[in-house]
């Protein structure tokens, strides 16, 4: 599981920390979930982020894999919620499109664009971390987009979901 922590000052985005939580060495799913929670809690304590952006759950053919992914996302969300950190979710396609201009970009294309955006080389050892960095940058782009600001939505408001739909479309809800 990859993660990325960015800092934003004005329009300048800088990478603070990135890495991969290696879970293959843990024998049970419960231990893997515990490790995710502990590492994310430590990152939150170390960097005190204002917000957390994660990947939306996506559909797959293997129900067991989807269940495990959903649990991992829930644990990640719980780590943020325990510190009252707002969570925003973005689809993998939206993240890729935001970073590369194409929703069908490969992991290598995303990594290449991240290096251009951040003006630094990313370690190939942490290719899985590019997902976390890309989600953080996608959130920065969308949280401060003219459409987001014009609609009056708060930077801390969750993008997407029923709450956003209701607040953006009051005349369509009975």
Automatic annotation (TrEMBL):
Key words, A-Z: Cytoplasm, DNA damage, DNA recombination, DNA repair, DNA-binding, Endonuclease, Hydrolase, Magnesium, Metal-binding, Nuclease
Residues reported in the UniProt entry to bind Mg(2+) 1: 128
E.C. number: 3.1.21.10
Cofactor details (free text): Binds 2 Mg(2+) ion per subunit.
Positions of the UniProt region annotated as Disordered: 148-174
Active-site annotation: 55, 128
GO molecular function terms attached to this record: crossover junction DNA endonuclease activity; DNA binding; magnesium ion binding
Enzyme type, top EC level: hydrolase
GO cellular component: cytoplasm; Holliday junction resolvase complex
Listed InterPro entries: RNaseH-like_sf, RNaseH_sf, X-over_junc_endoDNase_Mg_BS, X-over_junc_endoDNase_RuvC
Protein's UniProt keywords contain Nuclease: yes
Cofactor: Mg(2+)
Positions of Mg(2+) 2 binding: 55
Compartments where found: Cytoplasm
Record-level GO BP terms: DNA recombination; DNA repair
Reactions performed catalytically: Endonucleolytic cleavage at a junction such as a reciprocal single-stranded crossover between two homologous DNA duplexes (Holliday junction)
SUBUNIT field: Homodimer which binds Holliday junction (HJ) DNA. The HJ becomes 2-fold symmetrical on binding to RuvC with unstacked arms; it has a different conformation from HJ DNA in complex with RuvA. In the full resolvosome a probable DNA-RuvA(4)-RuvB(12)-RuvC(2) complex forms which resolves the HJ.
Function: The RuvA-RuvB-RuvC complex processes Holliday junction (HJ) DNA during genetic recombination and DNA repair. Endonuclease that resolves HJ intermediates. Cleaves cruciform DNA by making single-stranded nicks across the HJ at symmetrical positions within the homologous arms, yielding a 5'-phosphate and a 3'-hydroxyl group; requires a central core of homology in the junction. The consensus cleavage sequence is 5'-(A/T)TT(C/G)-3'. Cleavage occurs on the 3'-side of the TT dinucleotide at the point of strand exchange.
Family affiliation: Belongs to the RuvC family.
NCBIfam families for this protein: ruvC
Protein name: Crossover junction endodeoxyribonuclease RuvC
Organism: Dyadobacter jiangsuensis
Gene: ruvC
